[in-house]
Structures are given as structure tokens and as C-alpha cells.
Design brief:
- By secondary structure, the protein is of the alpha+beta class.
- The protein is built from 8 helices and 20 strands.
- The strands form 4 sheets. It has a 6-stranded mixed β-sheet with strand order 6-7-8-3-9-10, with helices on both faces. It has a 5-stranded antiparallel β-sheet with strand order 13-12-11-14-20.
- Strand 7, helix 5 and strand 8 form a beta-alpha-beta unit.
- The longest helix has 18 residues.
- The structure holds adenosine-5'-triphosphate and magnesium ion (MG).
- Magnesium ion binds next to helix 1.
- The site of magnesium ion has 3 residues, from helix 1.
Length: 365
Amino acid sequence: MDTPFISFRQVVKRFAALTVVDHLDLDIARGEFIALLGPSGSGKTTLLMMLAGFEQPTSGTIAVDGRRVDGLPPHKRDMGVVFQNYALFPHMSVRDNIAFPLKMRNTPKSEIATRVARVLDMVKLSAMAERKPAQLSGGQQQRVALARALVFEPQVVLMDEPLGALDKKLREQMQLDIRDLHRRLGLTIVFVTHDQDEALTMSDRIAVFNHGRIEQIGPPREIYAWPRSPFVAEFIGETNLLACKVDAQAGEAMHLITDSGLALLAHAGAGRIAGDKVRVSIRPEAIRINDHAAATANRLTARIIDAVYFGDHMRLVATVGAQRMIIKGDRMSGAAEVGSEVALSFAASDVWVVGSCNDQPSASA
Ligand SMILES: Nc1ncnc2c1ncn2[C@@H]1O[C@H](COP(=O)(O)OP(=O)(O)OP(=O)(O)O)[C@@H](O)[C@H]1O
Ligand SMILES: [Mg+2]
């Protein structure tokens, strides 16, 4: 990244004895859409509140456009904020809710009217400008909150699980709308979510939080395909995590023996030597069922113990000896009935080393 637009340096936040954000470094580029993803309590909201100015760091610095902002009050930071619970003023109309940040900034009356009309149009709520929040659906209230965060044309918009309260359809529509606004207005967006699909589909980069630290940061594809720890592998998507011992390196690949006694050929883990204990991740969709044509490095005989129909795919659970495996099969794998014996196959490159066995156990374990 050239000069970062927003930068956190060694930021710590403590509440009494509890360290909630732990020596965190993070750079965000201008115009970037970054998702903060992580389990409940991992410090996502706290980080956002420090950037917005509602909380102060215990130590460390936060800079925007080369200037330190820690110490500046929220309204001096030029950031629009959308909270999870909308936080609209119940006694004010939609129009007055949206005009509020402009009044706070002493914007002339005529300009307020023009700008409010423009954002109302943008979020498709012009027809509802005189209603009170209680007379709107959840999705409409969410759009008012979004309009209020955008009306003063901030460079940065911070969103804390803005779509959490919406049903699936509306949520997906709003995801598209927000992405569209991001592109059209060139906004820098910091978006907190604990929905992995939302993070994967919306953002330029994902920062995976765990206990107040960023466990991994990168573009969605990278985070999904090359998780650097068991925690990240399990948090982004479903996966099979297997504890193994390295048997031998074989050029681009390496031979592993799982703790349950299976021999696997894996993607070569850099710097691993025979005898090392490692954990590998095999994604459920990387495993093929009864695909006898495929020339894959790994082929195991398994028994199906559970099969659930999902419309567009089948989720199967199989056992290979003592090892349990989850498989995401296509609709045709419906032929793999519970109790039947099947052949599982997957490539060496789909057996991805995510860490050593003596690494910290994952938080969800
Ligand atoms: N004002 C506060 N006083 C004391 N503890 C706090 C305060 N605010 C947050 N915490 C604690 O800090 C930790 C991190 O909270 P935070 O709200 O940042 O988590 P989060 O990642 O946003 O979680 P969620 O996904 O549930 O929203 C939690 O353990 C929380 O209880
Ligand atoms: Mg939160």
C-alpha cells in the first residue's frame, strides 16, 4: 500500500483489567472497502468506536490522511457512522433525521434541503420523507440510517453490523446497494460483520479478528484459500481440520499421516520437515464423491453417515475409519445414501497446512 489513508499503530484498548484491543496495527487505503470479521467480543466494535471518536485508545495512535485523530471529537472527524440498531431519533421525521448532521454542522437551510433530497433519492425513500421511524420497516429504517451517514458527504463511512437485523432477501439487496454506493461515491468503508459470506462478497480486504488482534488480513480469496491458522480456516467457511505428522517431503507435495492413521498427499508446507506435527484444512467442496475419472492424489474409502439436501448442494458427513469428514457435494451426490460406501478424492493442493499442532488451539474448539 502506498501512503495509508487510515492507520492504527500499536493501538491498545483496556477496560479495567480487560485488554479488548491488543497492540493492533492496521492500514486502510483511500477508497478501500475493508471488512472487520470475527467472533463476538473480539474487539471489532471497540476498534470502530475508537476510529469514530466515541472511545479513546489506552495507548497507540490513529491517523487519518497523515494527521492524528485520537483526541478529536467525533464531529471533527468527517466520518459517517451506521450502528447496528439504527439509532434514529424516534420523534423526528425521516427528513429531519437525515438533516440532523447538517444542522449540527451549521449548513445553510437551502443547502440542507437539496442535500437531503439527493440522499433520499439515493436510498429510494423520497416518498417516505415525512414518516416517523416507527412507521417504517426494518430495511427502510436501515436506509434512513445509511442516508444520515452519507448526507454530509464524509470520506469515510463506518458501519457496525448494519444489516444484522434484516431478513436474508433484504440483506442481500442492501449489500448490493452499499457496494454500489461505495463504488459510485469513492467512499472508504470500514464494515464490521460476523457474517463470513457478507465479508467475502462485499469487501476488498478482510481483517479476521481474534481476541483483540488481527489474526490474518487479505483479499477474500486469499483468506478463504490460504488461511494461516486453524482459527481462520474454521471461521471463514466450513472446513475439515486434521491433525497430522509429516512423513516425507516430495517436491511440490508432502506425505502426511493423520492422527487417525490415514496417508495423505498435501500441498508442501514451507519449512516443514519429517516428524513435524501439523494441522491441515480440507474444504468440504474440494472433496469429490465416486469420481472415478479424476486423477487425484488422495483417494479414501468412506461410509456416509449423514446426508442433508440443501437445494443447490448436498451436505454429507462421512467416516473414514475414525476420521469424520464433511463433504459439500453437488446435487447428484444424492446417490450417496446414508450407510453406503463411497470413494472420496481430492487434490494434494486442497490439503492445506494451517499451522503446527502446538499452535494455540482455535477459539471455537
Ligand atoms: N464500555 C465497556 N466497558 C467494559 N467492557 C467493554 C466495554 N465495551 C466493550 N467491552 C468488552 O470488550 C470486549 C470487546 O467488545 P466489542 O464490542 O468490541 O466486541 P465485538 O467484536 O464488537 O463483538 P460483537 O460481535 O458481539 O459485537 C467484550 O468483552 C466487551 O464485553
Ligand atoms: Mg460489536
